[in-house]
Amino acid sequence: MAGILLEVQRLKERCRIVLASSSPRRHEILSLLGVPFEVVTPKFAEDLDKSKYTPPEYAMANARIKCAEVVMKLAHPRYPQPEYDDKVLIVIGADTVVVRGDTILEKPEDAAHALAMLKQLQGREHQVITGMAVSVGGSEEPVAIFEETSVSFAQLTDEELKGYIETGEPFDKAGAYGIQALGSLLVTGIRGNYQNVVGLPLAPLSRLIAAELARHLKGAAQECLVTH
């Protein structure tokens, strides 16, 4: 985290930061950096074949695709933004999944699906994995990492689970719960990064941004020396 604290002023002055996500929870967490950013929502359907990936690979693959899609969108002539010509483009993509055993749980399709998911999680420990991808300088090959946190649920009755589902909270959340709101009442404990369960662990993400920005600026400086 210290690396990005030293970079905050440079991010404000020299970088254009774009979050490739419509999630209000990710918006809120990223805003904690105190650096202005834009939101461009990717249209990726998140329809990768889960059987071909481990859960971390799946989350990172989704994050890379979202990130790369937005990079390409911003490069299209339909999106001319000359005021950013002198700034380094940083695009951030993310994808969060809940994992029980080897099963990846994403957002529920309906109330019955949400109930089935929550019944898998109750009284047990599960993992939450967020894949994060960063593109610096318009690269269409984002670099990705992941963070994993373990979450324990209380033993709950069907009546309690249905009551939670009736609030409507589960329907836009991986694993059918949100730890930052009413879903916290289902949780008995976590091991790891809390922000990761919400959807964007800022500390590992900030380290990745700092490392990729430094690599990009070093490469740009070397290229300038060669051409001059």
From TrEMBL:
Cofactor: a divalent metal cation
Alphabetic keyword roster: Hydrolase
Keyword Nucleotide-binding set for record: no
Cross-referenced InterPro entries: ITPase-like_fam (IPR029001), Maf-like (IPR003697)
Pfam family, one: Maf
HAMAP family, sorted: Maf
Stated name of the protein: Probable bifunctional dTTP/UTP pyrophosphatase/methyltransferase protein
